[in-house]
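Supplementary Text 2. Reproducibility record for the structural model of the 337-residue chain.

All settings were left at their defaults, and a single model was retained for analysis rather than an ensemble. We include the record here because the model underlies the residue-level annotations in Supplementary Table 4.
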Amino acid sequence: MNDKTHLVDEITGHRRMRRNRKADWTRRLTQENRLTVDDLIWPIFIVPGQNIVDPIRAMPGVNRMSVDKAVEAIREAADLGIPAIAPFPDVEMDKRDPTGSEILARDNLINQFARAVKTAVPNIGLITDVALDPFTSHGHDGILRDGIIVNDETVDQVARAAVMQADAGADIIAPSEMMDGRIGAIRRALDAAGHQDVGIMSYATKFSSGFYGPYREAINTGGLLKGDKNSYYISPANGTEALRDAALDVEEGADMLMVKPGLAYLDICWRMKEAFGLPTFAYQVSGEYTQIKAAAMNGWIDGERIMMETLLCFKRAGCDGILTYFAVDAARKLKSA
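Retained model, structure tokens:
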């Protein structure tokens, strides 16, 4: 017998990794992670008025929509199989004040939207935020007094807002303002109001990141912001602190955890999933979306391929789902595959 053993066989101990990569069928058979439409949550931007579809300059392909137009778009998302949406309001400037009091108006924009969606598309999940930044005149996520974001008063307000949003039809409250104790306060307020079935998706680790810029243009807070958010968002340098923050949210009753931003924090996604075992999500934020779109528009990358690759990477990092502005495009791609 002619021995065809090669030096490479001796070096690798006859273990060749490429055997499982040699054909399409073997690659499919051994694929570890898969992205499906069930993994997608679609963030959308809502504005007052009717018949409005307003393109956002800093987020090509993303629009601000009036409630009626948003409901039309959500019907399409539901038809594609997208499980849930996450709305963010761009409210009128004359309704913004230092305390964000408009968030407590029972008929504010986000609550109008929630009622309309639950009437028109009742089977899609509705995930709402109670952070105050769309409602404040200074662009911060909490109440600003004497140059300080006051924690406890903000927690009282967001807990009240959470109940109102649940009354309007929200299925999950996703508080993003990063105040201490907010998860427990919201859980108690929801339960006291009879909303035991309304879940909490905690922005467990929201980092003080430069990736949020286009979002702030989308809800018109960028020009309002006084100072920075470093006193309540987590430093990008701190992974252990992020895990401690998440642990407190778990103890306080969070049903799900979120990491924001996403791609630069895949290590945090993995560590959180390993540590707590709760459903874990990542938010592929506006800056991540825009840099992919901008590079693709310039012909520097294959935008569709990078879109799908980044979404799959979140799955590899342990995420159960992704909030992404690519949700509809990705769902169409998955449907046609």
